[in-house]
Amino acid sequence: MGVYNFSAGPSVFFPEVLEQIRDQLIDYRGSGCSLLETSHRSPHYDAVHTRALTLLRELYHVPNNYSILFCTGGATQQFAMLVDNFLSQGGTALYVTTGAWGKKALEDAQVRSNAYPHARIIEQYCSDQFVSLPPSHVFKTVTDVKKKQGGNDTVYAHITSNETIHGVQYQAYPSSPVPLIADCSSDLLSRPINFEHLAMIYGGAQKNIGPAGVTVVIIHNALLEKASEVLPPAYSYKSFAKKKSLYNTPPVFAIWCLQLTLEHIKKKGGLSYISDHNAHKARLVYTVIDAFPDMYRCPAVPECRSNMNIVFTLPDATRDAMFLEQARSKGFIGLRGHRSVGGIRASLYNAMSIEGATALAEFMKEFARTYG
Ligand code: PMP
After folding, report:
1. Residue 145, pLDDT score
2. Which atom of ligand 1 is nearest to the CA of 204?
3. Cα 360 to middle of ligand 1, angstroms
4. Which residue, of 38, 151, 270, 311, has the greatest Cβ tally within 10 A?
């Protein structure tokens, strides 16, 4: 049975890309063997690796003074690597937490900072109930915080671009007087972004641009310059940049799938197409939520609603369960809300079709009319 997969991640792939992977898996470009059996130092793999980097730069309009790295260990490893790279010699990092993932980034950074006596991790702002984003003055006061702490040693401020569990997304990035780092795990390449506001972004590929296994890091060279020189290479941004992310064996399969996904996005019209497509799908579902307020409630305040993860609840747990069961029987999968918040979550990443979002919206209307 064909299904519509609304899973939060790993998540739906473009069917055309899955077909390409299937067709090319056994005999890669007539080489007689699979890319999975090929050295990461071979010309075949080198072409994939270089092309994936080129496509990322082109599609995202990454300025030339930023470096693009392929790391492993997911965004979770970045939570610790940020501290290793930027705070090991001392300094302060400010965290703005707007959901469960921002909290996790903060907590992991705190744990990591225990290894460095002069590193300080400060939670600058925590949004109430994780339903909204900070007012812009929170970022303007970053400088005051530096003064209050008695020094000018703030190295970076950290935000979560899209909160996957709470369904809250920055519509535009704030301007910050200190380098701003964004965890873009769940909205990577889902819309164009203005790198002027961002010193670094990072995120795993497994929601919008490929499979789990590769983590994309895009970093301004001025920030990269400040990274530690004394880390083991596997933890050092400088080493990833210097060795073109080939110090050791990269996740070749994931990078190949990422390359094919980016080729597909380019063919479709790039990020302006993708962001319109994503906004359209989200509108279809939010319109139904707003049209049936007795049945559906979206905790996120309207200006902060995510186009990627639509989080909502029904009036009681019985109807949540009924909704999920009926959805499943009609081929809508992956809709259960995260176990920490319950309710329903529809993830509408890049590869979810308009047809899938429309079918879900129709199902929601029908359900509300029947059980409201
Ligand atoms: N940040 C966000 C916003 C996420 O959604 C996730 C994964 N769901 C992570 C970080 C952790 O990513 P990973 O599992 O790739 O380490």
Report:
1. 55
2. 15
3. 25
4. 311
Beta bridge partners of 220: 66
Tell me: cis bond preceding 299? Omega within 30 of 0 counts: no
Specify whether 183 is catalytic.
Answer: yes
Reported as a pLDDT band with limits 50, 70 and 90, residue 18 is very high
Q: Select which of 84, 108, 187, 207 is catalytic.
A: 207
Q: Whose CA is nearest to atom 10 of ligand 1?
A: 75
- Residue 108 annotated among the catalytic residues of the structure: no
| Pocket, ligand 1, Cβ cutoff 6 A | 9, 74-76, 101, 160, 164, 183, 185-186, 204
Predicted structure pTM score: 0.97
Q: Is the pLDDT of residue 148 over 70?
A: no
pLDDT in tens, 314-347: 999 999 999 999 999 999 999 999 999 999 999 9
Whether residue 128 lies in the annotated active site = no
Tell me what pLDDT residue 141 has.
Answer: 66
pLDDT tens digit sequence for 68-114: 999 999 999 999 999 999 999 999 999 999 999 999 999 999 999 99
